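Checklist before submission:
- one chain only
- standard amino acids only
- sequence pasted in full

Submission:
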Amino acid sequence: MSMDNKEQQKLEQIDDAIFFPIISTGVRRSVINVISNNPELDDIELRIKIGESIVEYFDSSIGIGKMGILLCSIGCFSNPRTVLEDYKKKYLEYYKTCPLPLVNTKKTLRKIATIEKELNRKIDEILKDERKLIGYCHLYWETKKKILLEDYGITWYSPAECNPDIIYD
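Returned file contents:
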């Protein structure tokens, strides 16, 4: 059964307003968890695992029931299974080849936690004369990154590197 133009327009409108924020956040969270929990995997193995996590997200976290409710709540009566499968395909295709997000692994974060007090003292000492104005966070993260690499051999990614779509002051 094909969709009429009015129904298609509704779907396009809700894609940006409702579905994209909900779905992209959930998918991104799933992808980040896979990367963080599997630092030993190569790119191909990682992408396979990411694909599995995307399928799991769509089938379990959203599901046809929730998709149906979302569609009905905005007066769109498309087949929820079709809409869900279309979104799933779109994200599976995207993550086959897209650049994967930078993620600090749990192992890295545990290492940092063990040296956190000493690390903070070093950062504070280096930045003691800097004014904490707009943009200070970038200087802080740059300093933290440098100390972690040079003093501890730890590669760490700043929030700005991990979330390039967010603007930090």
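Reviewer check: The chain has a mean pLDDT of 87.
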